[in-house]
């Protein structure tokens, strides 16, 4: 069997990291843990397992992309590399299934699976994450940070872009596809994730980060996140400006324009119901997705301000 190495990244994950480390046990030739300035006992816990520990230089802005690159560089051999986050635990059987898929499909450069939430029903925000993770299996255009990659391809592409602070996995996937490789999601449980989102403020910050990713990755790959950026500009910027202007012309016009949000909300909820979400969850998720255009717009503006001023691309944390 082709050997699999694991790169695990984290920052102040506490018990989540302990669970993640335990889940990898016996499934990897090498385990590298990359720590991004944790102030808890993360490093000590990783050392207990015998993992190789890499601590990032805190004088340089850290990103998940930079951490994964550092983990890959610390490996002593390269065949297949599985990247997972410190708030995720491996589902038994995924390593073997993903390895077999790469062994059998020479045209595939990356394999991912299904991520699910450990505490899905503790909050509406966790439920929304769980829905986002469960996408159809088959050939895909992009995936999240949990992925098994052919190491030689990672090296050829230079890994992830360390300047991309959000959607860095999407950016890497676009370069992988443009290099002629296929990306596959197999219908197998991959990781159990703990979003740990219980407050509206956490969801808002995560949505700001998402908007930053839309703008930054869209700047690097103009053909990607096109629909997402368009929706943010329409519902987060153009429509609010039109409503403000209409207040000076006719209050009834402002009310009519507000109706576009109601229509978008209903259309989104119906789409979620068609995808299999229970009605109650669908209407709750639709509300968040409708509201998300505003923090998304803030994130997009934050990226362009940083880009224009030459400011550091620093991470946006929600936990």
Key terms:
319 residues; alpha/beta; nine-stranded mixed beta sheet; 51% helix
Notes on the protein architecture:
- The chain has 319 residues and is α/β, with parallel strands linked by helices.
- Helices cover 51% and strands 17% of the residues.
- Strands 1, 2, 3, 4, 5, 6, 7, 8 and 9 form a 9-stranded mixed beta sheet that branches.
- Helix 1 links the parallel strand 1 and strand 2.
- Helix 9 packs antiparallel against helix 10 and helix 10 crosses helix 11.
- The longest helix is centred in the C-terminal third of the chain and has 24 residues.
- The radius of gyration is 21 Å and the shape is globular.
- The two termini are 38 Å apart.
- The model has no long low-confidence stretch (mean pLDDT 94).
Give the arrangement of secondary structure elements.
Elements: E1 4-10, H1 15-24, E2 31-35, H2 42-48, E3 52-55, H3 64-73, E4 80-85, E5 88-90, H4 94-104, E6 108-117, H5 124-133, E7 138-140, E8 147-150, H6 151-157, H7 168-178, E9 182-193, H8 200-220, H9 226-246, H10 251-274, H11 279-291, H12 293-309
Parallel strand pairs: 1-2, 1-4, 2-3, 6-9
Antiparallel strand pairs: 4-8, 5-9, 6-8, 7-9
Helix pairs in contact: 5-11, 8-9, 8-12, 9-10, 9-12, 10-11
């Amino acid at each position: 069997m082709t050997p699999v190495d694991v790169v695990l990244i984290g920052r102040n994950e506490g018990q989540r990291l302990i669970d993640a480390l335990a889940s990898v046990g016996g499934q990897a030739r090498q385990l590298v843990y990359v720590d991004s300035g944790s102030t808890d006992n993360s490093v000590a816990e990783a050392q207990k397992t015998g993992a190789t520990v890499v601590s990032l230089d805190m004088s340089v802005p850290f990103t998940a992309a930079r951490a994964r690159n550092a983990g890959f560089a610390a490996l002593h051999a390269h065949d297949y590399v599985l990247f997972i986050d410190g708030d995720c635990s491996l589902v038994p059987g995924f390593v073997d299934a993903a390895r077999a898929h790469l062994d059998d499909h020479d045209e595939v450069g990356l394999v991912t699976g299904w991520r699910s939430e450990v505490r899905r029903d503790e909050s509406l925000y966790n439920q929304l994450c769980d829905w986002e993770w469960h996408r159809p299996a088959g050939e895909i255009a992009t995936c999240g940070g949990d992925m098994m990659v052919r190491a030689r391809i990672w090296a050829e592409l230079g890994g992830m872009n360390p300047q991309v602070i959000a959607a860095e996995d999407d950016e890497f996937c676009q370069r992988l596809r443009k290099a002629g490789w296929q990306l596959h999601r197999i219908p197998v449980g991959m990781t159990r994730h703990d979003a740990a989102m219980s407050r509206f403020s956490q969801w808002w910050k995560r949505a700001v980060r998402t908007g930053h990713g839309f703008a930054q990755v869209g700047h690097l790959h103009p053909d990607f996140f096109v629909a997402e950026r368009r929706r943010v500009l329409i519902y987060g910027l153009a429509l609010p400006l039109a409503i403000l202007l209409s207040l000076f012309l006719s209050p009834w016009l402002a009310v009519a324009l507000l109706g576009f949000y109601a229509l978008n909300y209903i259309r989104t909820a119906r789409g979620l119901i068609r995808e299999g979400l229970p009605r109650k969850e669908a209407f709750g998720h639709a509300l968040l997705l409708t509201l998300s255009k505003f923090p998304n717009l803030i994130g997009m503006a934050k990226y362009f301000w940083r880009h224009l001023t030459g400011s550091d691309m620093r991470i946006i944390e929600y936990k």
